[in-house]
């Protein structure tokens, strides 16, 4: 028996290595024109902020500015709301009064307690003194103080 002779075969390119004009390659990376010095991401800030307004029956019935709020009164009203709604746990929530201006105040509190604080202030019935009923209203809450201050400026822009 005779051995079969080798058959000549044509060279074919392997799959995926075709360099025909229809196949495009990724362009070379461009060099950056700036150098990044540092990057930081704050995903969960430790503090949250609340903007509160004193709402009293004097301000509803008369056009005058009514009763003004001070830091001690703001802290007292918030403590009463927290203690009534959450008991001892509410009384233990740390509050910092950042600023009081007229009937408005800005507070700083631990971020984890913001939901409980908002619920307590919303549910609080307020206090009555000398026939005047006073309560707190939440104007805004945020993880960033700048967003609350910005809201106040937006309100002034549209209301004059």
Mean pLDDT: 83
β-strand percent reads 15-25%
- Looking at the structure, the CATH topology is Alpha-Beta Plaits
CATH superfamily: Ribonuclease P, Pop5 subunit
Please, how many helices? 5
Query: In one word, what is the shape?
Result: elongated
Q: Give the N-terminus to C-terminus distance in angstroms.
A: 109 Å
The CATH top-level class label: Alpha Beta
Would you count the extended β strands for me?
A: 5
Q: What's the main sheet like? A: 5 strands, antiparallel
Q: Give helix % range.
A: 25-40%
Uncertain runs are: none
Radius of gyration computed on alpha carbons: 33 Å
- Give the number of domains: 1
Strands side by side in the biggest sheet: 2-3-1-5-4
Question: Do you know the CATH architecture?
Answer: 2-Layer Sandwich
* Order of helix and strand elements from N to C terminus: EHHHEEHEEH
Walk me through what this model shows.
This protein has 160 residues and is of the alpha+beta class. It has a single domain (47-159), classed as Ribonuclease P, Pop5 subunit (Alpha-Beta Plaits), CATH 3.30.70. The chain has helices at residues 57-61, 71-86, 88-91, 114-123, 145-159, and strands at 47-56, 96-101, 104-110, 127-129, 132-142. The chain has a five-stranded antiparallel β-sheet. A hairpin with a 2-residue loop joins strand 2 (96-101) and strand 3. Helix 2 packs across helix 4. The longest helix has 16 residues, at 71-86. It is elongated and about 120 Å long. The model has no long low-confidence stretch (mean pLDDT 83).
């Amino acid at each position: 028996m005779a051995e079969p002779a080798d058959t000549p075969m044509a060279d074919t390119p392997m799959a995926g290595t075709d360099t025909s004009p229809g196949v495009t390659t990724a362009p070379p990376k461009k060099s950056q024109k700036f150098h990044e010095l540092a990057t930081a991401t704050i995903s969960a800030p430790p503090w949250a902020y609340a903007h509160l307004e004193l709402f009293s029956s004097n301000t509803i019935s008369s056009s005058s500015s009514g009763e003004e709020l001070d830091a001690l009164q703001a802290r007292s009203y918030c403590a009463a709301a927290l203690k009534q709604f959450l008991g001892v746990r509410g009384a233990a929530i740390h509050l910092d009064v950042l600023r009081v201006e007229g009937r408005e105040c800005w507070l700083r509190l631990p971020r984890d307690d913001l939901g409980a604080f908002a619920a307590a202030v919303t549910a609080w019935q307020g206090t009555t003194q000398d026939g005047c009923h006073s309560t707190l209203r939440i104007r805004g809450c945020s993880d960033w103080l700048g967003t609350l201050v910005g809201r106040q400026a937006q309100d002034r822009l549209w209301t004059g």
